[in-house]
């Protein structure tokens, strides 16, 4: 109990058992963290110190906001004759990323058995990639403060393609590296 008084912790003359257990746990925690050192001749006027090392890990994260997305893919008879459909700036997204290695812009086709196209040529930030029916991705460098990307597409049509308006066939997302 004398030690608690040295630490200027008030102790009642008749402490309960629970109070004694709590005080003992506090003292043990302080000793374990290095805040209190038993020293011979401790006068209570010295300053004791300890170093605490703190480390933090920031989880990789990439997020996007869709600024514009064409809702439909329109195929004309001229597109069928040519064999492909060009869609300039079909998608516009704002991306935020916190990893120096950059991020991936991911393209997924929920209907891998699409009856009207065989593959898609995707152009993002000056990089082009041929995306098969099961999807693909394009790496983008990290840009502090985020970036706005315009995505253009060239859908290579299948022999079964018919003219008409179709629900937009791709899902665009981002993933941190």
What does this structure look like?
The chain has 177 residues and is an alpha+beta fold. The chain contains 3 helices and 10 strands. The protein has a 5-stranded antiparallel sheet. Strands 7-4-10 form a 3-stranded antiparallel sheet, with no helix packed on it. Strands 2-9 form a two-stranded antiparallel sheet.
Topology:
Blueprint: H1 2-6, H2 17-33, E1 62-69, E2 72-75, H3 77-82, E3 84-97, E4 103-108, E5 117-124, E6 127-132, E7 136-140, E8 147-157, E9 164-167, E10 171-176
Antiparallel strand pairs: 1-3, 2-9, 3-8, 4-7, 4-10, 5-6, 5-8
Quick recap of the structure?
The chain is an alpha+beta fold and 177 residues long. It has helices at residues 2-6, 17-33, 77-82; strands at residues 62-69, 72-75, 84-97, 103-108, 117-124, 127-132, 136-140, 147-157, 164-167, 171-176.
């Amino acid at each position: 109990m004398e030690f608690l008084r040295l630490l200027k912790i008030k102790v009642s003359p008749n402490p309960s058992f629970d109070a004694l257990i709590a005080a003992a746990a506090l003292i043990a925690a302080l000793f374990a963290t290095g805040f209190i050192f038993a020293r011979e001749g401790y006068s209570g006027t010295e300053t004791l110190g300890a170093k605490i090392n703190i480390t933090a890990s920031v989880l990789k994260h990439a997020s996007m906001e869709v600024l514009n997305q064409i809702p439909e893919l329109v195929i004309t008879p001229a597109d069928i004759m040519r064999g492909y459909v060009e869609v300039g700036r079909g998608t516009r997204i704002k991306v935020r990323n916190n990893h120096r290695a950059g991020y991936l812009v991911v393209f997924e086709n929920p209907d891998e058995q699409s009856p009207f196209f065989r593959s898609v040529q995707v152009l993002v930030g000056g990089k082009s990639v041929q995306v098969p029916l099961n999807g693909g991705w394009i790496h983008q460098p990290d840009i502090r403060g985020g970036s706005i990307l315009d995505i253009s597409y060239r859908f290579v049509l299948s022999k079964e393609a018919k003219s008409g308006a179709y629900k937009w066939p791709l899902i665009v997302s981002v993933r941190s590296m």
